[in-house]
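name: query_chain
kind: protein
chains: 1
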Amino acid sequence: MSLVGKKFPNITVDAISEMGDNLRINILDEAVNNNKKVLLFWYPKDFTFVCPTELHAFQAALPEFEKRNTIVIGASCDTNEVHFAWLNTAKNNGGIEGVSYPLLADTTRNLSAALGILDAAAGEYNEDAETYLVEGSNVTYRATYLVDETGKIFHESVNDMPLGRNVNEYLRLVDAYTHVQTKGEVCPANWEEGKEAMSADRNSTAQYLSAN
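structure:
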């Protein structure tokens, strides 16, 4: 079920800073209390392959998100200790040294389960263990959430494990949503900052299509 248009779940999660400080972060509070947008991106595992390319890509774009009043936060189900070890591993050795935004450590899987992004399902009942065994990796897909200043989710997307994200698309989406907020217009297909938008009526759509 899509969460777009709904409030982000009010769940506080362990996290770590680049300096190794243990934190507690609530995404809803981050947005509302700071009057900022939040980009939260989930990745499957620390010390893997596609994941560090994404974390460095979001770091490279961090100044652009900051210009747009947007906080960037990464997340996985790894522990703070594993996050910190990865933060202290050099880029040329597959690490994320230099990443400066916080990383959630959803070890309880409370938030990722609420979002429905875990690769996990209840399997067959095991009589010896007296429990249902989990099928799947029980880590998250590459899910991304954009949350506005009121805590409302205005974008969500989920990639399968092998598929890295295009960071520029999230900048475009923040620009488009900000345009809607400030101008009261709607943004057509492939809209980018500086391009023509539309009023939400039939005449404006007809004029836009005629011109494009």
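note: The first strand starts at residue 12 and ends at 16.
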